[in-house]
């Protein structure tokens, strides 16, 4: 009886671990960031596609490029441009979230080095379900493919 | 009877002509605010003194308002100004138009910071000046130009406050006589529209 219970528990654990491991991870594309100088702030943008049947949540971005990274959102109010910090971004199941100028973006605060055009740098995106995903981001003035 | 005749012969044609003139001007530009009575002592990214707007009399000015720590909106304004600058060069008006990006964050945007900002973005600095100055001069200038910039959304990083601005998103067009003629969204400007407007001023 005890052995059966133990086997059931083990089977359940293996099933859960397998389900999480086999779930498709969010796809991160169109990754770019604006050049700026050491000590300044800049923004990075990506498109995140969640092909899983469950939502995932982006809650942090890690990099050695900046003293701090935060998720922010620009918006318009009373004819003025404003910005606010966002604690997390939910990527709904089977949906795409686009970070773009004038909307959601990643703030790289107090850069530790100059970011020069065409340079490539790694950012690590932290998701609640999918875990860490490393993404290479190119420094450019505009989104890849845009005039 | 006599008054009716006078109205028909003299007043009506006069009023009609005046109406056409006013309507014609309105189609061109909504604004005509003379800035020549003002004088602002500023400094550009090379440390050269700038007397705005008197120094630019005879030039068409495309003026954007930015701060260099702005991560999202102001870089769009500068990119748009660069696009307009390229197009102005293509139509052979490069020597008639000056591009000015005025920082409303003079406490952080020093001459050296502005220079680096321009270089890192590979701005063609031939007729593109980044301007800063003392806070009083900048505050007066942006007030005259109808720009609001309020420090907000601050974060403490390394024991110092890193702040951002709630601000007007603006590019302004000033004519050769120093009159403000039109205002556009800095980040969403239709470059074709301003190129046409520059054409009307030439």
Topology:
The complex is a heterodimer of chains A (147) and B (202).
Chain A (H helix, E strand, L loop, with lengths): L1 H21 L4 E7 L8 E8 L6 E7 L3 E12 L2 E7 L2 E3 L4 E3 L5 E8 L8 E8 L3 E9 L8
Chain B lengths: L1 H27 L4 E2 L5 E4 L5 E4 L7 E7 L7 H17 L6 E7 L7 H10 L7 E4 L3 H10 L4 E9 L2 E9 L2 E4 L4 E6 L6 H11 L1
Supply database-style keywords.
heterodimer; A: 147 residues; mainly beta; Immunoglobulin-like; 10-stranded mixed β-sheet; 1 helix; 10 strands; B: 202 residues; alpha+beta; Glutaredoxin; 6-stranded mixed β-sheet; two-stranded antiparallel sheet; globular
User: What is the CA-based Rg of chain A, rounded?
Assistant: 19 Å
| Shape assignment of chain A | elongated
Query: How would you name the CATH homologous superfamily of chain A?
Result: PCu(A)C copper chaperone
Question: What value does the Rg of chain B take, in angstroms?
Answer: 21 Å
Per the CATH scheme, the topology name of the largest domain in chain B is Glutaredoxin
Average per-residue pLDDT of chain A, rounded, comes to 92
Count of alpha and pi helical runs of chain B: 5
Give the overall form of chain B.
Answer: globular
Measured by DSSP, the beta-strand proportion of chain A falls in over 45%
Tell me the total number of β-strands of chain B.
Answer: 10
Encode the helix/strand succession of chain B as letters: HEEEEHEHEHEEEEH
Helix content of chain B: 25-40%
The oligomeric status of these chains comes to heterodimer
Q: Average pLDDT of chain B, to the nearest integer?
A: 90
Can you tell me the CATH class of the largest domain in chain B?
Alpha Beta
Low-confidence region ranges of chain A: none
Query: How many distinct helices of chain A?
Result: 1
What is the CATH topology of chain A? Immunoglobulin-like
User: How are the strands of the largest sheet of chain B arranged?
Assistant: 1-10-9-4-5-6
Determine the CATH superfamily of the largest domain in chain B.
Glutaredoxin
CATH architecture of chain A: Sandwich
